[in-house]
Fold this protein.
Amino acid sequence: MAQLIEAPVILEGQAWHDYGLVDSGNGRKLERYGGYRFIRPEAQAMWAPRRGDWDAHGEFVPGSDEDGGGRWRFDKDVPGAGWPLCWREVNFTAQCTPFRHLGFFPDMAPVWDWMRTQLAGKDDAQTLNLFGYTGVGSLALSECGGVTHVDASKKSVAQAQDNAALAGMADRPIRWLVDDAAKFTAREVRRARRYDGIILDPPKFGRGPKNETWRIEEGLAPLVSDCRFLLDENSRFLFLTVYAVRMSSLALGGLLAELFTDLPGTVEHGDLAVREEGEKGRLLPTAIFARWRITG
């Protein structure tokens, strides 16, 4: 049976050529995305900034509602259609979105590396990316074999395909699907499909392509339960990330441990975090996660 490791793990993201966490503090963070710098809200940056001058191209000013809202304010010119960035061999487009992020989640970089490590030596792996967004993770996983990319947003899937073309990966074996993640996964269970790895990054709240309502407190456990039936003792991993909810990573780990009790392997949980650039850079937590993996 899968063993739950109760001690939490920190999965640390580091700066790379096209991204870095420059500074953080007073509930905000300063990041560089290629040649542009942006300030965004970050409630977990409770300390004081280390830099006195946060020279930025733009800042996302949040609304008064804690559940979202806000707008970008620009002090310098920023390309409205976005600009190219690169992670490893994956090229993609960054862009200031109305949802405060920039078209990808840089704290997921160590997760992409970890998943590729789990699939090492298996060139024909089949992986499932639920809530796949703009496809950077799917493109990273496609190095190891076929990927099924599912997102409810037609616009996000179109951007994912554009990113594939930009990266010269349009011929990779990726299925791009506009679908409700929970409904798709349930259908895959009925089809008796099997995957070598699954990554899911569900939002706190969302709507499917047919106006289906998703609330993480209600939908997460049934969805992960269905994901379990798409994996077996020869699969390699399931990785679950959760943002912006009042929930412990230990709760996520406990859920996976219960659902994976009949499979071998290990269940771990903890924080995703990004380290500031420079000497003695601080770790800024961004999300919680739980993962199951085959060990040995």
